[in-house]
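[09:14] KT: can someone run the structure on this one? pasting the chain below
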Amino acid sequence: MLSPVNIAIVEDNAATRKRLVRHVEATGRFCVVSASATLSEARSALHQNPPDILLVDLGLPDGDGCMLIAEQAKANPELPIMVISVFGDEDRVIRAIQAGARGYILKDEDREAIGATLQQLLDGGSPISPSIARHLIRQFSQTRSCGKAVQEPLSARELEVLNLAAKGFTYQEVADLLEVSINTVSSHTKQIYAKLAVNSRSQAVFEAARLGLVNMRTSE
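[09:31] RB: done, structure tokens below
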């Protein structure tokens, strides 16, 4: 039997916090070890009970959630951190990723989606809501420059994986669509990260959009 994975939640809205706790624990795979309402509460809770995964809202009453993300990413670079927010605008997403978040999903995700994204984080992925990915790709397509070149060209298959990732598909979905194993997708993803000099799927999407490497004709 697999050991439970400890989750820490930082969310100021009491009703949303309770819902997240309920949804996370309903998966049967994850256990909430702390659920904090403020930045100060979160710092204390994380010190006392270090989690395996950290879920963070950005709009906290005593500070910006990006502050906590940056602190925790510096203290423990291996800690998977994901933002769960009602806001999906470009500025907030970019600041969160730059601070160290590995994923960014919107609060309207259902229980099954929460469980799937947590598992994806645990597997080394970087889940991002498709609507956010589409928005960012459109924004970056309008302002991208050629100031930074890819150190080594991406292969045709790597570009396929990258385009599917930009559309919000999970590792398993990409594997199914390309008719390859999930390990093959993971291997291609690692090569993409290395060539783009990034550390997560979401950063890869941002950089690929800036460089014009992804298909901009996404559906609504």
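[09:33] KT: thanks! Residues 216-220 have pLDDT under 50 and may be disordered.
[09:34] RB: yep, looked fine to me
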